[in-house]
Amino acid sequence: MTWNAVPERRLLVIEDDYFWADELRRALEDAGATVLGPVASVETAMALLRSEPELDAAILDLGLRGVQAYGVADWLLARRVPILVITGYEAEALPPAYAALLRLEKPVSTAAVLTAVETLFPIP
Fold first, then answer.
1. Looking at the predicted structure, is the pLDDT value of residue 109 above 70?
2. For residues 20-43, average pLDDT
3. How far apart are alpha carbons 68 and 11 in whole angstroms?
4. By the 8 A CB rule, do 121 and 11 touch?
5. 81 with 52: CB under 8 angstroms?
6. What is the pLDDT of residue 6?
7. How far is Cα 95 from Cα 19, in angstroms, rounded to an integer?
8. Burial (Cβ within 10 Å: 0-12, 13-18, ≥19) of residue 2
């Protein structure tokens, strides 16, 4: 797959499923992205965001170890960081504030994630 729209992008992966997060990290790196994380908790995500404020986008699972990651989403939105939500929740279960976010429902393939990430960035 040629990933022309997002080479060398800095992407934060926030996902609590270790195996899926690692698979996603490898696919993104193979496509040319620099991956921050993956991180598996709200606390770790917020610490990383405070120390690494330069992000091109984030891939976010809103349910992390039983904790809703709405604070992480709000932080990213306030800084206009594009977000791809990957979740097991149906769209109707998400708060209205996140209705406009690009969302994929689990289970999802890495190919679908790469395609979705490309849409976060305008093609020059």
1. yes
2. 95
3. 20
4. no
5. no
6. 57
7. 27
8. exposed
Q: From CA 45, how far away is CA 121, in angstroms rounded?
A: 22
Mean pLDDT of all residues in the chain? 90
pLDDT, position 2 = 46
Cis peptide before 122 (omega within 30 of 0): no
Token reading at 121: 């960035």
Q: Which DSSP symbol is given to 33?
A: P
Gap between the Cα atoms of 39 and 61, Å rounded: 10
CA–CA distance, 47 with 114 (Å, rounded to integer): 26
The CATH number of the domain covering residues in 10-119: 3.40.50.2300
How crowded is residue 72: how many other Cβ atoms within 10 Å of its Cβ? Answer: 27
